Amino acid sequence: MTPPPLPLAEARRRFLDGDDVSARSVPEPILHSWRRCQGLGLDVGRWRPPSRLAETELAARREESADWLQRARPAIDVLFDSVLDDGHVVIVADHGGLILERMGHPDFLERAERVALAPGMDWREDVRGTNAIGTALVLGAATVRGAEHFLERNRQLSCTAQAIHDPQGRRLGVIDVSGQPRRLHDAHRLQVEAAVRRIEQCLFDRHATRLHELRLAADPALLATPRCGRLGFDDDGVLRAASRTALAALGLDWTALGRLRFAQLCGQSLEHWLSRNGIHVASLRHGGELLSAQLLPVRADLDPLPREALHPPPSPTAAATAARPEPPHRPAAAVLGAPAVADVGLPAGLLDTARRLLEADIPVLLLGETGVGKERFVQALHAAGSRHRQPLVAVNCAAIPEGLIESELFGYEEGAFTGARRQGSKGRLREADGGVLFLDEIGDMPASLQARLLRVLQERVVQPLGGGAGQRVDVRIVAATHRDLAQEVAAGRFRADLYYRLGHYPLRLPPLRERGDVAQIAAALLAAHGAAARAITLSPALAAFIRGYPWPGNLRQLDNLLRTLLALVDDGTLLTPEHLPATLRDTAPSAGRDDAVHAALARHGGNASAAARALGISRSTLYRRLGRN
Hints:
By secondary structure, the protein is of the alpha/beta class. Helices cover 41% and strands 15% of the residues.
């Protein structure tokens, strides 16, 4: 009789004692990882972490991944929004397991910091033992819960991660969701998989241009969705690019690139398919399974990306950078690729005013409601200025616990306090040396720190905790808050001298309801997130709803909604109010809907069917809104 599986704690103890442990007690991928870690000589209890990468080195590693990170951003943001309320963090690591970015729930960030789950830290399996990031680099995907981590110190985590590959099979990085052991569920693994699938689709769009694309799916309805498999063939019919979905459906791996020919797969030459099938759907039998296949024409709207773009040469040294003349100003729209992300709906010239202040070393103080896009504005401001090659270091004064914000800002020397890292910490001010420091939610900074910050702004010298010589820094300051600082000063909660030091020329970012036609802003945001490439458009009915809704969450709420809709719908979709979540759809003002219906009927000469198609609703829904049966 087969013995029952052992509890994980008992299986772990037996493994460490040298006894055999079956895969019934420990998942096989975890067991194999434990064996690899043991073979590397890692000690589960005694482990000295490597030092955190310096900010300049981290910036260089981020630059190496800049291309795919930019294209991954919408999917990462959607993933972040979906796991934030569960108390988790989203981790982005590069192809070597180095954490590039971390974003998440404030309640978990402190725990993540304690185990060095932070930007600049190396989480390869041979450094950190069994963990989702490092193990995903080995296996492609991994979920590691609690005591499944090889190192004792990481048992307080549960993580799920998946590696990202480009269409040529090169591993680019890892997306990870980490949280408390009892709060990470299988749904989070599926969310990570969906995010990576979307990212790899975007990479295929960008890096497989000038190739003949063959789409594959078991169901023809999936050919226009992110769930289809995609193969790219050159003019000679040789496979040059692939998605993992396609390779898995065909039982192939990355070694098929450069070897598999179109005729071997389809039974007929590429030229024959081009002449006979065009973009029509055909059937393809492979390994006894019938697949739907669609050959798409070569896209000529994008230039192919050079191979070296994914692996650029190392960043120039500081001396070389200083020697190279920099343009004093770059338009933010050109930098970011989409004006919508830079200063969507803001008063003309606001971004340029902020840039001029920053270039003159005058602190920029941004005022605005929560969600108006202050952080995006700062990113655009940094990208448009002469310091765009230097770090932009952001500190959320409201998200860091009061007991940690001083050490976070000013750094500390070795032994400054219990729990301090052996090598000390530079602090965010010194990390921003030569660049820009963004103090978000400055109105929530503890009063005890406001005097120290004022002194740094005046003297440009940082004194770390625990003593040591003060260090001169060259930083430009941007601060932002949703609070009325003048009222905070009157109430004694914010120092008047710091307010006047920051507020030379405060700039107000207006709420979304004051930014003109919100539907035009929505259309611009959709374009920035690639809706046009997927043939996704906004119906007049949804545009009418967007104009009539008050958007209490401002630009963030609108943008999050649009990115979520893009993640949920198939290519070619006309977005209508029916796609909205019910809680939002029920708030739609009936007057606005009726206006849209009457306008559509007028445009189509009273033809109810044509008007309904234009609005993206059924004819019965149109009649119901008109009050007719």
